[in-house]
Amino acid sequence: MNICLLSFDIEDWFQVENLRDVISRTAWDRYELRVVENTQRLLEILERHDTKATFFVLGWIADRVPQLVKEIHRAGHEIASHGYEHELIYKQPPEVFREDIHRSKSLLEDLTGEAVLGYRAPSFSITEYAIDILMEEGFRYDSSLFPSVYHDRYGKILSISQNEAKSVVRLRAGFYEVLISTLSFWGWQAPWGGGGYFRVLPYNIFRWGVDKILRKQGCYLFYLHPWEIDPQQPRIRGIKWNYRLRHYVGLNTAKVKLERLLSDFHFLPIRDGLAKLGCLSLK
Ligand SMILES: [Zn+2]
């Protein structure tokens, strides 16, 4: 039984770490919100492909456009938390992190009337100390670990190797890590979970990798952001060339590639995938 998990991180184009040098958090309110339209485009695509997904919604966004959270939830998707402020976990003291996730979880639960089970760290910055706090705050899984050594910002969990392909790991009794997919090449893990890696690679090569991961692990996890299907977003000058590449590469073709991926594989929300694996029971 192969399980393909689909996830979206709901934040806007100006909130990403790659633009942080030019756009500070205090300036966010000055930029054009494009997340509603872009997320609605994702919802249309998902409806056309009769597919449900997990949406990790940033609290900052939920506060400004609560109707969007309700719309995603009404369409039958899983609402999960992407924290509130989008600050890298290892840059925050534990008590600030606890406050951030508590605030975002209660906000989302008030909007949907349903328990939020999942969390994804900003820029995959998951850190060991966060696991117990997530559990204490009522989360049942984290989906933030990118077990690849290729990126300077990714976080670490001590019990999981940074260079080992895995899909779901039980970290504590009743708490799971759902890893971002990587593809093994001669003992190295290449990021294969979506985002910029999906945008930069030709679709057929990407699909070949997904098949390979499924054959080996039986489980694959994909992620994308609403701004990644928005080639019309404002272009920001003054950022480092590699950050510019990470943010702007392949925006024109991502939507078409996503449609092909959804035609080729049958995806589930993470919650449903964990239930299939016997890690969660859904009421
Ligand atoms: Zn994010």
Largest sheet: 5 strands, parallel
The proportion of residues in beta strands is 15-25%
Amino- and carboxy-terminal Cα gap: 22 Å
- Fourth-level CATH superfamily: Glycoside hydrolase/deacetylase
CATH architecture: Alpha-Beta Barrel
Spell out the helices and strands N to C. EHEHHEHEHEEEEEHHEHHEH
Q: Overall mean pLDDT score? A: 92
Which cofactor or ligand species appear? Answer: zinc ion
Explain what the structure shows.
By secondary structure, the protein is α/β, with parallel strands linked by helices. It has a single domain (about 5-275), classed as TIM Barrel. Helices cover about 35% and strands about 15% of the residues. The chain has ten helices and eleven strands. The strands form three sheets. Strands 1, 2, 3, 10 and 11 form a five-stranded parallel beta sheet that branches. It has a four-stranded mixed beta sheet with strand order 4-5-7-6, with helices on both faces. It has a two-stranded antiparallel ribbon with strand order 8-9. The radius of gyration is 17 Å and the shape is globular. The mean pLDDT is about 90. The structure holds zinc ion. Zinc ion binds near residues 9, 11, 82 and 86. Zinc ion (ZN) binds near residues 9, 11, 82, 86 and 122.
Give the SSE map:
Elements: E1 3-10, H1 35-48, E2 54-57, H2 59-64, H3 66-74, E3 78-81, H4 94-112, E4 118-119, H5 128-136, E5 141-142, E6 168-172, E7 175-178, E8 182-185, E9 188-191, H6 195-200, H7 203-217, E10 219-224, H8 241-248, H9 254-264, E11 267-268, H10 270-276
Parallel strand pairs: 1-2, 1-10, 1-11, 2-3, 4-5, 5-7
Antiparallel strand pairs: 6-7, 8-9
The structure holds zinc ion (ZN).
